[in-house]
Write a structure and sequence with these properties.
This protein has 325 residues and is of the alpha/beta class. It is built from eleven helices and 13 strands. Helix 1 crosses helix 9 and helix 2 packs antiparallel against helix 10.
């Protein structure tokens, strides 16, 4: 999994600014860009962390570029539907994919066949944000810590259910990692989206779920869910008081990709424009309010990390035994 770090050097940004200038005219015959609205395709349902982050970035980017940036939700097949749509889109700089780590680096390991190649079909632009995952329970559930959850599950084998956003999603795999590492028998109940899973845990239909910080922290704050820990190797600066679950440490990122073959001057322009947006105090505060932290990564660093991450998730999926045909 990719680590949260700032990889952009000030000198590189200065050089890129000089190369792009203040206008929108691009080199190598691309011509002026953008001259019409841009579409961000989100391959998940509205209301999830990826959708919320995409809309926050799109609103500010539209103002920066002088053209609307429209967010289009294309959920289905665990993110494969919207992802494959972007893979088949024209590489003209008017369609981008705003995706979650789970859809792009877990699905290739999970599915026997997927309708896109996560490397060959895309031009990585940058990571946008990272958001930790939290282990939460309904307040009426007796466990107040991970150890208490494990102890309860062992004395009630096969009776503790955990909700996920669907088969093969990150919160599903976190549950499978917990089962394997602690030797407990939890029953997986897949939902059609993270919001639906969290809502049923709030309602008491199921006792346990893993959820992204943006998706479940509002319920924790209001007392509708109890948080047992954060799936990370260190405390999250968003809520440093939450216990760390090092054995379940993952880094969940949200990133921007373009169809393969998108002209590099357009990729560079989008990268620079979004970097400027993410560096504003208003956007930093907005993302933190959503439960996410901004990330600055270059197109090159994002692309370089994807093959290793795909290999890492292949090992995790293989160990979990999860598979979707």
């Amino acid at each position: 999994m990719m680590h949260r770090r700032t990889v952009m050097a000030c000198a590189a940004v200065g050089a890129l600014c000089a190369a792009l200038g203040n206008g929108l005219a691009l080199a190598q015959g691309v011509g002026p860009w953008p001259v019409k609205p841009i579409t961000f395709v989100v391959p998940q349902s509205p209301g999830g962390a990826n959708d919320v982050i995409a809309r926050a970035v799109a609103q500010s980017l539209g103002s920066t570029l002088g053209q609307p940036v429209i967010v289009e939700n294309r959920p289905g097949a665990n993110g494969n539907l919207g992802t494959s749509q972007v893979a088949r889109s024209a590489a003209d700089g008017y369609t981008f994919l705003v995706t979650a780590q789970s859809a792009h680096t877990i699905n290739p390991a999970l599915y026997t066949r997927i309708p896109f190649d996560p490397i060959k079909d895309f031009t990585p632009v940058m990571q946008l944000a990272v958001a930790p995952y939290l282990l939460v329970v309904n307040p009426k559930f007796p466990a107040k810590t991970l150890d208490e959850l494990v102890a309860y599950a062992k004395t009630h084998p096969g009776q503790v259910e955990y909700a996920s956003a669907g088969n093969g999603t990150l919160n599903h795999l976190l549950g499978e990692m917990l089962k394997k590492q602690r030797g407990v028998n939890l029953l997986h109940v897949p939902y059609k989206g993270a919001a639906a899973a969290a809502t049923d845990v709030v309602a008491g239909q199921l006792p346990v779920t893993f959820g992204s910080f943006p998706g479940v922290m509002p319920f924790v704050t209001s007392g509708k869910l109890r948080v047992l820990g954060v799936a990370s190797d260190k405390p999250t600066p968003l809520a440093p008081e939450i216990p760390v679950l090092k054995e379940l440490a993952v880094t969940s990122w949200y990133g921007l990709l373009a169809p393969a073959g998108t002209p590099q001057p357009i990729v560079d322009k989008v990268y620079l424009s979004i970097t400027q947006v993410l560096n504003t105090p208003a956007m930093k505060e907005r993302l933190r309010a959503l439960g996410a932290e901004p990330v600055q990564s270059t197109p090159a660093s994002f692309a370089a990390g994807l093959p290793a991450e795909l290999a890492q998730w292949q090992k995790i999926v293989d160990a979990s035994g999860a598979r979707i045909d």
